[in-house]
Amino acid sequence: ILIVLIVMINKQYPRLREEVLKKLGKWEPEEEKKEEKPSTRLNSLDTFRGLAITTMIFVNFGGGKYYFMEHAAWNGLAVADFVFPWFMFMVGLSIVLSTQSQLKRNVAKTVILKKVTIRFIKLFLIGIFLNTAVPGGVELSNWRIPGVLQRIGFTFFVCSVLEVLFIPRLTAVDSFGGGERLTVAADDNEYNECGKFLNDNPDIPEKKISNWRFGHSSNGEASCTGKSLLFHTWPQWIIMSLFTGLWCAITFAMPIPGCPTGYLGAGGLADDGQYPNCTGGAAGYIDRLIFGPNMYQHPTCKALYRTTHAYDPEGLLGCLTGIITVYSGVLAGHIIVTNKSSRGGTLIKLVVLAGITLVLGIVLSKGSLSGGWVPITKTCGLSRML
Question: Which DSSP letter does residue 352 get?
Answer without folding.
Answer: H
